[in-house]
Amino acid sequence: MDLMDLAKRIASGERRALARGITLVESSRSDHRAQAAQVLAALPKDRQALRIALSGTPGVGKSTFIESFGMMLTAQGLRVGVLAIDPSSARSGGSILGDKTRMDRLSRDPSAFIRPSPSQTHLGGVARRTREAVALCEGAGFDVVLIETVGVGQSETVAAQMADLFLLLLAPAGGDELQGVKRGIMEMADIILVNKADGDLEPLATRTCADYAGALRLMRKRSQDPDGFPKAMMVSALHEQGLQDAWGEMQALDGWRRNNGFFTSTRALQAQYWFEEDVRTALLAQLDEKGIREEMRRLGANVACGDVDPAVAAQKMLAVLRDMNRG
Asked: How far apart are alpha carbons 196 and 237 in whole angstroms?
């Protein structure tokens, strides 16, 4: 594989090359990891897409929203990349939902690129190499990159570590719904969008939006937010209502953060976070090496039999790793 040619083709916006590059960064093989690093290093560094992470409860209409929102953006002349993180099959490790098949119109739009990726049991429903896939889309010249994550929960806030804006999509419901959403993810959200605000559900959506707006006002104000943010809004992805207003608020928030230095500082902190994560991942990968794996099994069997305390066994395992690294 000519890595420099692949990087050049990705930078020119070639969709097939971009798909191949994402396959490369998602691979866990050590040689592919080295090749992926070379491709990423060769991409233009002056391209910055608006990275938007989107989360929400199952069945809230995330795919419908992304399709309608993406079609609106491409109609304005923007290029849109979508990284849809699907739940993984426990048997094969592949994607279960197949989000691309549920975004038929957007998948056929020449200004859009959709890539479903299995979450591979990663906490937060974010595939391990999603951040690098985002960087590839950015290098390919996309203006907006949407990151759709699995479900909603405390751990899913990791998605905010790779995005400029974090959207929380919710359905119309009563007070119980407000209790069902973790405080942690609400604190991370920049904009809460109450979807399905149409037909008979519109009055209920109005009340739900007001409930969330009230809850947001009780939370501690963040330094990176201007007055009025975070905020709750109503949209109808099915009828394509409220999408332009939501986009206007996203642009306003992004513009304020760029003008006040928060965009650059946040991305710097995110880069540091992922550096530390990559180091942790590399250290954990050592446990899969043959000699280490055998020692883990031996100590695990001793722990299971009650011959060794788990904490003592862990210290012995760490000593083995230190000895190997010294060697």
From this structure: 7
| 246 closest CA partner among 256, 255, 236, 238 | 236
Architecture label for domain 1-42: Up-down Bundle (1.20)
pLDDT digits (tens, 9 = 90+) for 65-99: 999 999 999 999 999 999 987 654 434 444 444 45
Q: Does domain 44-260 have CATH number 3.40.50.300?
A: yes
90 contacts 101 by C-beta, under 8 angstroms: no
Calculate the CA dihedral of residues 246, 248, 254, 257 and round it to 10 degrees: -110
Q: Alpha carbon of 314 to those of 302, 309, 325: distances in Å?
A: 12, 9, 17
Residue type for position 84? A
Whether omega for the bond prior to residue 118 falls within 30 degrees of 0, making it cis, is no
Q: What is the pTM of this model?
A: 0.86
- What is the side-by-side strand order in the sheet with 165-170? 112-118, 80-86, 144-148, 50-56, 165-170, 191-194, 231-234
pLDDT in tens, 51-63: 999 988 778 899 9
